[in-house]
Amino acid sequence: RGGAHAHSGGKMASTAAGKQRIPKVAKVKNKAPAEVQITAEQLLREAKERELELLPPPPQQKITDVEELNDYKLRKRKTFEDNIRKNRTVISNWIKYAQWEESLKEIQRARSIYERALDVDYRNVTLWLKYAEMEMKNRQVNHARNIWDRAITTLPRVNQFWYKYTYMEEMLGNVAGSRQVFERWMEWQPEEQAWHSYINFELRYKELGMCHSGIAVSLTRAVLVLVHPDVKNWIKYARFEEKHSYFAHARKLYERAVEFFGEEHMDEHLYVAFAKFEENQKEFERVRVIYKYALDRIPKQDAQNLFKNYAIFEKKFGDRRGIEDIIVSKRRFQYEEEVKANPHNYDAWFDYLRLVESDTGAETVREVYERAIANVPPIQEKRHWKRYIYLWINYALYEELEAKASKRTRQVYQACLELLPHKKFTFAKMWLLYAQFEIRQKNLPLARRALGTSIGKCPKNKLFKGYIELELQLREFDRCRKLYEKFLEFAPENCTSWIKFAELETILGDIDRARAIYELAIGQPRLDMPEVLWKSYIDFEIEQEEYEKTRNLYQRLLQRTQHVKVWISLAQFELSAGQEERLLRCRQIYEEANKAMRSCEEKEERVMLLESWRSFEDEFGTDATKERIDKLMPEKIKKRRKLQAEDGSDAGWEEYYDYIFPEDTANQPNLKLLAMAKLWKKQQQESEAAAMDPDKDIDESQT
């Protein structure tokens, strides 16, 4: 391409002069993207990094004569003027220009520049400050006063001008002038800090009389003329009077503040300061009155600091009762806030009631209980009522034990029982507590009526048990029989009730009736704990020494279940029966059990039976019987089985223990054939391994 260009250039040179060569537009032949792509972000980052590169400093210029200096000044002024002409509103250009003239001691020129800048933007605070600072720096006091006067006249709400002006006058020793500036400032009713600056100014010069009159004027205007009607200003004024021993005036100020704010805008800080003032004056009764007045009127959530200071005061100067009153009132306030935030927070009610019961009278306690029980759970589900019901229980116990009011206790129980939705659920403990209360009041008919009503409305196991226990204590056995009959009609599957009923009849000496109850019980189609019931029936017959009936019971039970514990229990019964043939009977039972358990899939139960049999033979058997039972004992082997996950996938292998019984091995000849096959396979593997090893002798491999 370069050669072609040079050749064309040679031809052009030979053409006539005046004709210009028109460059050709280059055509891009390869339009594929470059291997290294540059993004816009990289370009911007590179440009930013190059901005930070240090430029070489300008060369130093040495001025040797006046002409060069004037030339330098002319060029700099021209530069500044050009910058101002480009944008007059950029105040920094004016300030730089004026400061440059100031550095050359051209004060008049600098003033001229500042005045021109003020014509452009007289609201710029920095401009006024730089202008005044220049005059003060060059000791032009009258010029500086003139600038400050113009500044505070033009912008009276800029506090910085006033602070600088008063500070300058004070530094010059012109106290009267500074006070005059402060007075002019106060006419504009500035913020609180300005008033405090005026007060501190007067205090610095120890002019107490003037200070007192100045504070009286300033704070009266700040507080009473509604310039700054804040509590802290009243407190500062009163503390100032207290500091300078004007105690009567300070007390009047506090009283005027309390009257000024009234009950609508009460602030705890004012009353705390008032109380501390009276405490310093040893007026303890006045302090107590102030605290109580404030606590009765200020909302509790806004009186935390008041509570704290009152408690500290009582600990220092009060008695024990006063301290307890403070603590109790503070805790009562906390509990009130909790129950207001969540009325169904029954734990908060319990704590509140416990506090009230320990400190206040019966009427207050009853009022809090009534408020608590009025918060009925909104949902009729028992789990939401479990905490709520204890409010009623505690209320009834309080009326009975603390208030000694039996009529009110009865009313509480009856109101609670009327409130409960018995069709959905009930609380047996409430019925039983009510019945026990009536018994303590020697009113047995009401107690029976309450329990009878409970069984009729909402029968429960606990209610039946409680009623039966009551009648048992009263030795009313006929009533107990009737209640058991009702109970078993209600819950015929409850084995415990059948057993208790039969035990009652046994205690009363009616054996036939007890046996009939047991027969009815085991004939029920559905029972919750049948094994307990059968065991109780068998124990009952053993106690009556009816061994034949006991054996019949065991046989009837074995027809229903072939559980190993039943066989072992039967064998132990025969052993303990005390008859001559007990060992033979026991051994026969073990034989029958072993035959029956051969078809059982649970091999552990069969092992348990054999171990029980072996322990029996060890104690009572002969050598032949011991040898026989040893032959029956199984061999424990370890096996592996494949596991599957819930989704049907392979979950690996699991090791487990299995039992091989000799009797089962004799009846299954395939097991012997399998053992021989395993032995043959093992021999084959050994021969193959020997054939693959060339170092071994041929005779050894054949062997």
Automatic annotation (TrEMBL):
It comes from the Eukaryota. GO terms for biological process: spliceosomal complex assembly. Residues 92-384, 402-553 form the Pre-mRNA-splicing factor Syf1/CRNKL1-like C-terminal HAT-repeats domain. One of its GO terms (cellular component) is U2-type catalytic step 2 spliceosome. It is found in: Nucleus speckle. Pfam families: HAT_Syf1_CNRKL1_C (PF23231). Residues 1-28, 684-703 are annotated as: Disordered. InterPro entries: HAT (IPR003107), HAT_Syf1_CNRKL1_C (IPR055430), Syf1-like (IPR045075), TPR-like_helical_dom_sf (IPR011990). Keywords: mRNA processing, mRNA splicing, Nucleus, Phosphoprotein, Repeat, Spliceosome. Belongs to the crooked-neck family. Involved in pre-mRNA splicing process. As a component of the minor spliceosome, involved in the splicing of U12-type introns in pre-mRNAs. This is Crooked neck-like protein 1. The lineage of its organism: Eukaryota, Metazoa, Chordata, Craniata, Vertebrata.
